[in-house]
Specification:
homodimer; 158 residues; three-stranded antiparallel beta sheet; DNA-binding
Chain lengths: 158, 158
DNA sequence: CTCATCTCAGGCTGACTGAGATCT
DNA sequence: CAGATCTCAGTCGGCCTGAGATGA
Protein backbone atom coordinates (compact mmCIF):
# COMPACT_ATOMS: atom_id res chain seq x y z
CA UNK A 1 0.00 0.00 0.00
CA UNK A 2 1.07 3.53 -0.65
CA UNK A 3 -0.45 5.56 2.18
CA UNK A 4 0.30 8.84 0.47
CA UNK A 5 -2.45 8.05 -2.01
CA UNK A 6 -4.97 6.52 0.33
CA UNK A 7 -8.39 8.10 -0.32
CA UNK A 8 -9.38 10.71 2.23
CA UNK A 9 -12.71 8.96 2.66
CA UNK A 10 -10.82 5.97 4.05
CA UNK A 11 -8.24 7.92 6.02
CA UNK A 12 -11.02 9.66 7.89
CA UNK A 13 -12.71 6.44 9.02
CA UNK A 14 -11.92 5.16 12.49
CA UNK A 15 -13.03 1.73 11.30
CA UNK A 16 -10.54 1.77 8.44
CA UNK A 17 -7.65 3.07 10.54
CA UNK A 18 -8.38 0.52 13.26
CA UNK A 19 -8.45 -2.23 10.66
CA UNK A 20 -5.10 -1.21 9.23
CA UNK A 21 -3.49 -0.63 12.61
CA UNK A 22 -4.79 -3.94 13.88
CA UNK A 23 -3.37 -5.73 10.85
CA UNK A 24 0.02 -4.15 11.46
CA UNK A 25 -0.14 -5.19 15.10
CA UNK A 26 -1.08 -8.75 14.23
CA UNK A 27 1.76 -8.88 11.74
CA UNK A 28 4.28 -7.70 14.34
CA UNK A 29 2.96 -10.18 16.90
CA UNK A 30 2.79 -13.11 14.52
CA UNK A 31 6.28 -12.54 13.14
CA UNK A 32 7.67 -12.87 16.64
CA UNK A 33 5.42 -15.70 17.79
CA UNK A 34 6.24 -17.78 14.74
CA UNK A 35 9.90 -17.75 15.75
CA UNK A 36 9.01 -19.88 18.79
CA UNK A 37 6.47 -22.09 17.03
CA UNK A 38 3.26 -20.32 18.05
CA UNK A 39 0.78 -20.70 15.19
CA UNK A 40 -2.12 -18.53 16.37
CA UNK A 41 -3.45 -16.16 18.97
CA UNK A 42 -5.00 -18.92 21.05
CA UNK A 43 -1.66 -19.84 22.62
CA UNK A 44 -1.07 -16.57 24.40
CA UNK A 45 -4.71 -16.06 25.29
CA UNK A 46 -5.18 -19.48 26.78
CA UNK A 47 -1.99 -19.47 28.84
CA UNK A 48 -2.65 -15.91 30.01
CA UNK A 49 -6.15 -16.86 31.16
CA UNK A 50 -4.90 -19.99 32.91
CA UNK A 51 -2.08 -18.11 34.60
CA UNK A 52 -4.48 -15.58 36.05
CA UNK A 53 -7.46 -17.77 36.90
CA UNK A 54 -6.14 -21.26 37.48
CA UNK A 55 -7.85 -24.37 36.04
CA UNK A 56 -10.79 -23.34 33.89
CA UNK A 57 -13.30 -25.08 31.63
CA UNK A 58 -12.85 -24.83 27.87
CA UNK A 59 -16.13 -23.00 27.39
CA UNK A 60 -15.14 -20.41 29.95
CA UNK A 61 -11.72 -19.96 28.38
CA UNK A 62 -13.36 -19.33 25.03
CA UNK A 63 -15.64 -16.66 26.45
CA UNK A 64 -12.81 -14.88 28.21
CA UNK A 65 -10.54 -14.59 25.22
CA UNK A 66 -13.22 -14.35 22.50
CA UNK A 67 -12.42 -17.67 20.86
CA UNK A 68 -14.97 -20.04 19.41
CA UNK A 69 -15.68 -23.27 21.29
CA UNK A 70 -14.46 -25.46 18.44
CA UNK A 71 -11.26 -23.48 18.11
CA UNK A 72 -10.65 -23.80 21.85
CA UNK A 73 -10.98 -27.57 21.52
CA UNK A 74 -8.47 -27.68 18.69
CA UNK A 75 -5.99 -25.35 20.39
CA UNK A 76 -6.17 -27.16 23.73
CA UNK A 77 -5.57 -30.50 22.01
CA UNK A 78 -2.57 -29.13 20.18
CA UNK A 79 -1.13 -27.39 23.22
CA UNK A 80 -1.69 -30.47 25.35
CA UNK A 81 0.48 -32.37 22.88
CA UNK A 82 3.22 -29.85 23.54
CA UNK A 83 2.80 -30.20 27.30
CA UNK A 84 1.92 -26.53 27.69
CA UNK A 85 -1.32 -27.44 29.46
CA UNK A 86 -3.32 -30.49 30.43
CA UNK A 87 -6.94 -31.55 30.63
CA UNK A 88 -8.43 -32.95 33.81
CA UNK A 89 -12.02 -33.90 34.54
CA UNK A 90 -13.97 -31.38 36.60
CA UNK A 91 -15.01 -33.27 39.74
CA UNK A 92 -18.07 -31.08 40.30
CA UNK A 93 -19.37 -31.00 36.70
CA UNK A 94 -18.46 -33.93 34.53
CA UNK A 95 -19.43 -32.20 31.30
CA UNK A 96 -16.38 -30.03 31.66
CA UNK A 97 -12.70 -30.39 30.96
CA UNK A 98 -10.75 -28.37 33.43
CA UNK A 99 -7.66 -27.06 31.68
CA UNK A 100 -4.56 -26.44 33.75
CA UNK A 101 -1.29 -24.81 32.77
CA UNK A 102 1.84 -26.94 33.19
CA UNK A 103 5.22 -25.68 34.34
CA UNK A 104 6.35 -25.91 30.75
CA UNK A 105 3.40 -23.73 29.85
CA UNK A 106 4.28 -21.17 32.52
CA UNK A 107 7.82 -20.92 31.20
CA UNK A 108 6.55 -20.62 27.66
CA UNK A 109 4.13 -17.89 28.69
CA UNK A 110 7.09 -15.87 29.96
CA UNK A 111 8.73 -16.17 26.57
CA UNK A 112 5.56 -15.12 24.80
CA UNK A 113 5.11 -12.17 27.14
CA UNK A 114 8.52 -10.87 26.18
CA UNK A 115 7.76 -11.23 22.48
CA UNK A 116 4.39 -9.57 22.93
CA UNK A 117 5.98 -6.60 24.66
CA UNK A 118 8.51 -6.24 21.88
CA UNK A 119 5.67 -6.15 19.40
CA UNK A 120 3.87 -3.46 21.41
CA UNK A 121 6.97 -1.29 21.41
CA UNK A 122 7.41 -1.75 17.69
CA UNK A 123 3.78 -0.95 16.98
CA UNK A 124 3.52 2.08 19.22
CA UNK A 125 6.90 3.54 18.40
CA UNK A 126 5.52 6.78 16.89
CA UNK A 127 3.60 7.61 20.09
CA UNK A 128 4.78 9.21 23.31
CA UNK A 129 4.33 7.38 26.60
CA UNK A 130 1.40 9.60 27.51
CA UNK A 131 -0.22 9.00 24.15
CA UNK A 132 0.18 5.24 24.49
CA UNK A 133 -1.64 5.33 27.80
CA UNK A 134 -4.42 7.43 26.35
CA UNK A 135 -4.72 5.14 23.34
CA UNK A 136 -4.99 2.05 25.54
CA UNK A 137 -7.55 3.79 27.72
CA UNK A 138 -9.73 4.76 24.78
CA UNK A 139 -9.47 1.37 23.11
CA UNK A 140 -10.37 -0.42 26.30
CA UNK A 141 -13.43 1.78 26.70
CA UNK A 142 -14.49 1.02 23.13
CA UNK A 143 -14.05 -2.71 23.60
CA UNK A 144 -15.85 -2.72 26.94
CA UNK A 145 -18.68 -0.69 25.48
CA UNK A 146 -19.27 -2.96 22.52
CA UNK A 147 -18.68 -6.31 24.18
CA UNK A 148 -19.73 -5.49 27.74
CA UNK A 149 -23.08 -4.07 26.71
CA UNK A 150 -24.17 -7.38 25.34
CA UNK A 151 -23.43 -8.97 28.69
CA UNK A 152 -25.35 -6.50 30.83
CA UNK A 153 -27.99 -5.16 28.49
CA UNK A 154 -28.38 -7.94 25.90
CA UNK A 155 -27.70 -5.79 22.96
CA UNK A 156 -29.79 -3.11 21.34
CA UNK A 157 -26.86 -1.27 19.84
CA UNK A 158 -28.79 1.06 17.59
CA UNK B 1 -17.07 -12.73 25.33
CA UNK B 2 -17.28 -11.55 28.89
CA UNK B 3 -14.85 -8.64 29.12
CA UNK B 4 -14.99 -8.59 32.89
CA UNK B 5 -12.94 -11.76 32.91
CA UNK B 6 -10.55 -10.98 30.10
CA UNK B 7 -7.00 -11.74 31.25
CA UNK B 8 -5.04 -8.66 32.26
CA UNK B 9 -2.22 -9.81 30.01
CA UNK B 10 -4.55 -9.37 27.04
CA UNK B 11 -6.24 -6.20 28.25
CA UNK B 12 -2.87 -4.51 28.49
CA UNK B 13 -1.87 -5.29 24.90
CA UNK B 14 -2.42 -2.58 22.31
CA UNK B 15 -2.38 -5.31 19.69
CA UNK B 16 -5.20 -7.18 21.38
CA UNK B 17 -7.31 -4.09 22.00
CA UNK B 18 -6.83 -2.96 18.42
CA UNK B 19 -7.82 -6.39 17.19
CA UNK B 20 -11.01 -6.42 19.22
CA UNK B 21 -11.89 -2.80 18.45
CA UNK B 22 -11.26 -3.39 14.76
CA UNK B 23 -13.52 -6.44 14.80
CA UNK B 24 -16.28 -4.41 16.42
CA UNK B 25 -15.83 -1.70 13.83
CA UNK B 26 -15.95 -4.15 10.95
CA UNK B 27 -19.07 -5.69 12.40
CA UNK B 28 -20.80 -2.30 12.64
CA UNK B 29 -19.75 -1.40 9.11
CA UNK B 30 -20.69 -4.76 7.61
CA UNK B 31 -24.09 -4.86 9.27
CA UNK B 32 -24.97 -1.59 7.59
CA UNK B 33 -23.34 -2.30 4.25
CA UNK B 34 -25.10 -5.63 3.95
CA UNK B 35 -28.46 -3.83 4.06
CA UNK B 36 -27.65 -2.26 0.67
CA UNK B 37 -26.05 -5.34 -0.86
CA UNK B 38 -22.39 -4.52 -0.26
CA UNK B 39 -20.55 -7.79 0.33
CA UNK B 40 -17.06 -6.59 1.25
CA UNK B 41 -14.80 -3.65 1.94
CA UNK B 42 -13.69 -3.33 -1.68
CA UNK B 43 -16.86 -1.52 -2.69
CA UNK B 44 -16.34 1.53 -0.54
CA UNK B 45 -12.61 1.65 -1.04
CA UNK B 46 -12.77 1.42 -4.80
CA UNK B 47 -15.50 4.03 -5.24
CA UNK B 48 -13.80 6.35 -2.74
CA UNK B 49 -10.52 6.12 -4.64
CA UNK B 50 -12.21 6.67 -7.99
CA UNK B 51 -14.20 9.63 -6.68
CA UNK B 52 -11.04 11.35 -5.49
CA UNK B 53 -8.61 10.46 -8.25
CA UNK B 54 -10.62 9.85 -11.38
CA UNK B 55 -10.00 6.89 -13.70
CA UNK B 56 -7.24 4.69 -12.28
CA UNK B 57 -5.64 1.37 -13.18
CA UNK B 58 -6.56 -1.70 -11.17
CA UNK B 59 -3.05 -2.19 -9.84
CA UNK B 60 -2.95 1.37 -8.60
CA UNK B 61 -6.35 1.02 -6.97
CA UNK B 62 -5.16 -2.04 -5.15
CA UNK B 63 -2.11 -0.27 -3.78
CA UNK B 64 -4.11 2.72 -2.61
CA UNK B 65 -6.66 0.79 -0.63
CA UNK B 66 -4.45 -2.15 0.39
CA UNK B 67 -6.30 -4.76 -1.62
CA UNK B 68 -4.66 -7.66 -3.40
CA UNK B 69 -4.49 -7.51 -7.21
CA UNK B 70 -6.62 -10.62 -7.67
CA UNK B 71 -9.27 -9.30 -5.29
CA UNK B 72 -9.36 -6.02 -7.19
CA UNK B 73 -10.01 -7.93 -10.39
CA UNK B 74 -12.87 -9.86 -8.82
CA UNK B 75 -14.42 -6.80 -7.17
CA UNK B 76 -14.18 -4.67 -10.31
CA UNK B 77 -15.84 -7.40 -12.36
CA UNK B 78 -18.65 -7.70 -9.86
CA UNK B 79 -19.14 -3.94 -9.51
CA UNK B 80 -19.03 -3.49 -13.26
CA UNK B 81 -21.95 -5.90 -13.47
CA UNK B 82 -23.87 -3.61 -11.11
CA UNK B 83 -22.99 -0.55 -13.21
CA UNK B 84 -21.15 1.08 -10.30
CA UNK B 85 -18.01 1.47 -12.41
CA UNK B 86 -16.70 0.57 -15.85
CA UNK B 87 -13.48 -0.58 -17.43
CA UNK B 88 -11.89 1.27 -20.32
CA UNK B 89 -8.58 0.63 -22.05
CA UNK B 90 -5.76 2.99 -21.06
CA UNK B 91 -4.73 4.73 -24.31
CA UNK B 92 -1.18 5.34 -23.09
CA UNK B 93 -0.50 1.86 -21.61
CA UNK B 94 -2.46 -1.00 -23.05
CA UNK B 95 -1.58 -3.36 -20.23
CA UNK B 96 -3.90 -1.37 -18.02
CA UNK B 97 -7.60 -1.26 -17.44
CA UNK B 98 -8.61 2.23 -16.48
CA UNK B 99 -11.51 1.98 -14.07
CA UNK B 100 -14.00 4.84 -13.97
CA UNK B 101 -16.89 5.44 -11.59
CA UNK B 102 -20.34 5.71 -13.17
CA UNK B 103 -23.10 8.09 -12.07
CA UNK B 104 -24.79 5.10 -10.48
CA UNK B 105 -21.55 4.50 -8.61
CA UNK B 106 -21.35 8.10 -7.43
CA UNK B 107 -24.89 7.92 -6.07
CA UNK B 108 -24.13 4.61 -4.38
CA UNK B 109 -21.00 6.05 -2.83
CA UNK B 110 -23.12 8.72 -1.18
CA UNK B 111 -25.29 6.03 0.35
CA UNK B 112 -22.26 4.13 1.60
CA UNK B 113 -20.74 7.29 3.05
CA UNK B 114 -23.84 7.83 5.14
CA UNK B 115 -23.76 4.23 6.38
CA UNK B 116 -20.04 4.49 7.12
CA UNK B 117 -20.59 7.62 9.18
CA UNK B 118 -23.34 5.95 11.15
CA UNK B 119 -20.97 3.12 11.93
CA UNK B 120 -18.29 5.56 13.09
CA UNK B 121 -20.72 7.20 15.47
CA UNK B 122 -21.82 3.86 16.84
CA UNK B 123 -18.25 2.67 17.29
CA UNK B 124 -16.92 5.83 18.92
CA UNK B 125 -19.93 6.52 21.09
CA UNK B 126 -18.03 6.21 24.40
CA UNK B 127 -15.51 8.89 23.38
CA UNK B 128 -15.76 12.67 23.49
CA UNK B 129 -15.27 14.69 20.31
CA UNK B 130 -11.78 15.68 21.40
CA UNK B 131 -10.88 12.09 22.16
CA UNK B 132 -12.14 10.94 18.77
CA UNK B 133 -9.88 13.43 17.06
CA UNK B 134 -6.92 12.35 19.14
CA UNK B 135 -7.65 8.69 18.45
CA UNK B 136 -7.82 9.27 14.70
CA UNK B 137 -4.62 11.27 14.82
CA UNK B 138 -2.74 8.57 16.68
CA UNK B 139 -4.07 5.76 14.51
CA UNK B 140 -3.15 7.60 11.36
CA UNK B 141 0.38 8.12 12.64
CA UNK B 142 0.66 4.41 13.44
CA UNK B 143 -0.60 3.40 10.01
CA UNK B 144 1.64 5.89 8.23
CA UNK B 145 4.61 4.74 10.23
CA UNK B 146 4.16 1.06 9.50
CA UNK B 147 3.02 1.27 5.91
CA UNK B 148 4.78 4.45 4.80
CA UNK B 149 8.19 3.30 6.00
CA UNK B 150 8.14 0.43 3.57
CA UNK B 151 7.59 2.89 0.76
CA UNK B 152 10.49 5.14 1.64
CA UNK B 153 13.05 2.72 3.02
CA UNK B 154 12.30 -0.70 1.60
CA UNK B 155 11.48 -0.07 -2.01
CA UNK B 156 11.26 -3.81 -2.63
CA UNK B 157 7.66 -3.74 -1.44
CA UNK B 158 6.31 -3.29 -4.70
C1' DC C 1 15.30 -9.38 -21.53
C1' DT C 2 13.21 -7.41 -17.56
C1' DC C 3 9.38 -5.65 -15.49
C1' DA C 4 4.37 -4.38 -14.92
C1' DT C 5 -0.43 -5.56 -15.54
C1' DC C 6 -4.62 -8.35 -15.64
C1' DT C 7 -6.77 -12.63 -14.94
C1' DC C 8 -7.74 -17.18 -13.24
C1' DA C 9 -7.06 -21.31 -10.39
C1' DG C 10 -6.24 -22.78 -6.14
C1' DG C 11 -4.30 -22.93 -1.30
C1' DC C 12 -4.38 -21.41 3.50
C1' DT C 13 -6.18 -19.76 7.61
C1' DG C 14 -9.51 -17.92 10.96
C1' DA C 15 -14.26 -17.63 12.09
C1' DC C 16 -18.18 -19.92 12.40
C1' DT C 17 -22.25 -23.54 12.14
C1' DG C 18 -24.59 -28.02 12.81
C1' DA C 19 -25.03 -32.11 14.90
C1' DG C 20 -24.26 -35.72 18.18
C1' DA C 21 -22.86 -37.50 22.70
C1' DT C 22 -22.66 -36.56 27.45
C1' DC C 23 -24.01 -34.49 31.56
C1' DT C 24 -26.63 -30.93 34.96
C1' DC D 1 -37.82 -31.72 29.60
C1' DA D 2 -34.42 -27.53 28.70
C1' DG D 3 -29.72 -26.14 28.69
C1' DA D 4 -24.56 -26.46 28.94
C1' DT D 5 -20.31 -28.72 27.42
C1' DC D 6 -17.02 -30.98 24.34
C1' DT D 7 -15.87 -32.70 19.90
C1' DC D 8 -15.78 -33.29 14.99
C1' DA D 9 -17.01 -32.33 10.21
C1' DG D 10 -17.55 -29.01 7.11
C1' DT D 11 -18.69 -24.31 5.21
C1' DC D 12 -17.46 -19.62 4.10
C1' DG D 13 -14.86 -15.40 3.24
C1' DG D 14 -10.53 -12.85 3.28
C1' DC D 15 -5.93 -12.98 1.99
C1' DC D 16 -2.36 -14.55 -0.72
C1' DT D 17 0.60 -17.16 -4.35
C1' DG D 18 1.71 -19.02 -8.90
C1' DA D 19 1.47 -18.93 -13.50
C1' DG D 20 0.15 -17.56 -18.09
C1' DA D 21 -0.88 -13.98 -21.51
C1' DT D 22 -0.19 -9.39 -22.92
C1' DG D 23 2.34 -5.33 -23.33
C1' DA D 24 5.89 -1.29 -21.87
Amino acid sequence: MDPRNTPNRLRALATWLLFQASNQGQRLINERMHTVGVPNRAYYGLLAALAESGPTSQADLGRRIALDRSDVTAAVTEMEGRRLLERMPDPVDRRRNLVRMTETGAAFLTTMERLAMEAQDALLEPLTAAERMHLLDMLERLVEHHTGIAVHNEGSAG
